[in-house]
């Protein structure tokens, strides 16, 4: 459903949020290891997240990635998905057609639209704090 970059971006943001809740910044290598992603690929993803003000990057000896406490309840999955994959996941045609719309629907348009609308609602209403708390409480995991 999401691109590999988006999956890693969501996992990275959750990991960074979890560490930020403990007052810690994390390095690129720590993030890559935690989400089981190649370092160079992770760097590009984290750059996109930082450019979209989802995470903060601090340089220097005590630097690393973090999410300010004030943003934990504000950052949603929708922001992460849009930062990496754009909005095609909940705007595009289920069959990949360019001309699919309400007036010229593809064979699955209306069924797929309902799924897309539910997905968009879930992405809009799920914040990073909820997901990081799942890690903190041991009810959710980032690795297989």
From TrEMBL:
GO terms for molecular function: DNA-binding transcription factor activity. It comes from Halomarinibacterium sedimenti. The lineage of its organism: Bacteria, Pseudomonadati, Bacteroidota, Flavobacteriia, Flavobacteriales. PANTHER family: TRANSCRIPTIONAL REGULATOR-RELATED, WINGED HELIX-TURN-HELIX TRANSCRIPTIONAL REGULATOR, RRF2 FAMILY. InterPro entries: Tscrpt_reg_Rrf2. Pfam families: Rrf2. It comes from the Bacteria. NCBIfam families: rrf2_super (TIGR00738). One of its GO terms (cellular component) is cytosol. This is Rrf2 family transcriptional regulator.
């Amino acid at each position: 459903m999401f691109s590999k970059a988006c999956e890693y971006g969501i996992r990275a943001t959750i990991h960074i949020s979890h560490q930020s809740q403990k007052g810690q910044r994390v390095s690129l290598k720590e993030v890559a290891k935690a989400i089981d992603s190649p370092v160079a690929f992770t760097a590009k993803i984290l750059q996109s997240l930082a450019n979209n003000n989802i995470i903060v990057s601090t340089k220097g000896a005590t630097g690393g990635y973090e999410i300010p406490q004030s943003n934990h309840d504000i950052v949603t999955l929708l922001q992460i998905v849009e930062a990496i994959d754009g909005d095609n996941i909940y705007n595009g045609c289920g069959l990949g057609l360019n001309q699919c719309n309400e007036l010229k629907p593809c064979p699955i348009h209306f069924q797929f639209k309902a799924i897309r609308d539910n997905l968009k609602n879930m992405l809009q209403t799920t914040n990073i704090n909820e997901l990081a708390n799942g890690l903190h409480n041991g009810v959710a995991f980032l690795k297989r």
